[in-house]
Amino acid sequence: MSTYVLGLSAFYHDSAACLLRDGEIVAAAQEERFTRKKGDESFPSNAARYCLTASGIEIKDLTAVAFYDKPLLKFERIIETYLSVAPSGFQSFRKAGPLWMKEKLYTDNAIREGLGGFKGRVLYAEHHESHAASAFLASPFERSAILTIDGVGEWATASIGVGQGADFELLRELDWPDSLGLLYSAFTYHIGFKVNSGEYKVMGLAPYGSPRYVDAILSELVDLRDDGSFRLNQEYFDYLSGLTMTNNAFSRLFDGPPRLPESLLTQREMDMAHSIQHVCEQIVLRMARSAHSLTGERNLCLAGGVALNAVANGRVLRESRFDGLWIQPAAGDAGGAVGAALIVWHRYLNGGRDVQALQTDAMKGSFLGPEYSDAEIERALTDEKATFEQLGRDEMIESVASLIAAGAVVGWFQGRMEFGPRALGARSILADPRNPKMQALINLKIKFREGFRPFAPSVLLERAKEYFDLDGESPYMLIVVPVCEERRLPPPENISELWGIDQLNVPRSDIPAVTHLDYSARIQTVTRDRSPLYYGLIKSFERQTGCAVLVNTSFNVRGEPIVCTPRDAYRCFMRTELDYLAIGSFLLAKSTQPQRAEGAWKQPVQLD
């Protein structure tokens, strides 16, 4: 009889569920994909239901449920924080205290009720142990150093550990309130983006700015040490006692108050983004080097929200002393569900770990979410009164490759949905990277978001070195690397006259739609064994154009999660200026769809 462990993360942001069968990850999904509420923090009842249904089991079949942190320890930290700043934190405590007393201190009851009356064992792991487990125990390494960095768990904000075989140990921790994740989020807030979702925007905005605030950060905000540990000067922050991230002192240091969301981005915000990104990279690099010195290991595993900073990851890959780097594709809180389940399997149930049996890693390309049969897709499209044609596999690949080569932008919905924040060729929007106008076009007419937001290239692994300076793989789109010198284009003569966003449409390589201002790209390497259909599509595009790269961005619009169901996909298709939708074996052209007042070519409400 099989042993099943359900891992859960919930109640803060990006709730998720993950199911193990005899230690194997068989299903995982974020709650937001089902509720359509971006970053949904509520109990992941829909995600858990999917995991059980996909595996053909019921709640009573679970051996144990694992939760990704320890609420009582977190409550201890919150109470001690309020006491340390009293009475200034009263307003914040008045809002948070009753919520904790009413809901979060009764997590055990919430889990059992959320799972429909589960009566079995509920076990708890510490937050950064869950991150560490999600990194090392799901990695392809028999042994490695481990580095986790995020906002805050119970007390820890970062940790260094070492793993071997089926277990690991945390050796060092950095504790609250000194947090790289919260430092980065403070700048996210002040630049005018939403905390816990806008950090990607800060990273994307950084190349348009200059490092003019780096000295101010390192002299006033951060006391940075050689080993990567640091102290934050709390005189500039408000997250201990208030309801915002920064205060008036922060505003004076950075030349003004927080930017109002949706207002014009100025050079100040670009320079702030560049400066905090620079400091973030320095801290992550120092922490990685400390992990190497402390453990002596050749490989490194990363997790925690800061591990989604692909630019910093690229520098760790190139400049740290490690030979191998593996990053959990759901590195944020969603991945905590994976880590908690793995801890229970290996430590509590004494399950084994056979790295040699893995083809790559335990995440299966991160294709762990729902999939839909052609019959289910056809039924959904018919209900929407859509018009479509059905194609064979090879015909679909050749047709979509031809459409993209001709300049079309295509929604691509195939197989199991990705787990984690990146679209990896299952729920993607695809386009031709050779078009210098494609970045602005997709951002403004399809994604309905800021024009500066960069796109990632998907490249055939065997051709990656012809386009990018990468020695190895990047299957989860979590590493930024330089574009090869021979593909770069010289800057125009007037480049010195262009500032900020004016530089957006300056081609920098022969794949300009995926090349950042600094001649880098956040790449995804694609292999036939992980993604046979997507690999075939890129291969066909290469045969037709000579280019082994596609633009790949997530299939969603701003403010909404990545699409999950066929109905989600069709409605996103109809609300945007996507040209075609390839969903299962069905191909839909926008020009042939019924024009409906509630859906067609309609820009959604702007959410930030």
The proportion of residues in beta strands is 15-25%
Helical fraction equals 25-40%
Report the radius of gyration as a whole number of Å.
Answer: 23 Å
- The spatial strand order of the largest sheet comes to 13-21-20-14-15-19-16-18-17
**Secondary structure category:** alpha/beta
> What is the number of beta strands?
21
Tell me the major beta sheet: 9 strands, mixed
For the residues shown, what is the average pLDDT?
Answer: 90
Q: Helical region count?
A: 18
The rough form would be described as: globular
Distance between the terminal alpha carbons, to the nearest Å? Answer: 47 Å
Low-confidence stretches: 597-608
Which descriptors apply to this entry?
single chain; 608 residues; alpha/beta; nine-stranded mixed sheet; five-stranded mixed sheet; 18 helices; 18% strand; disordered C terminus
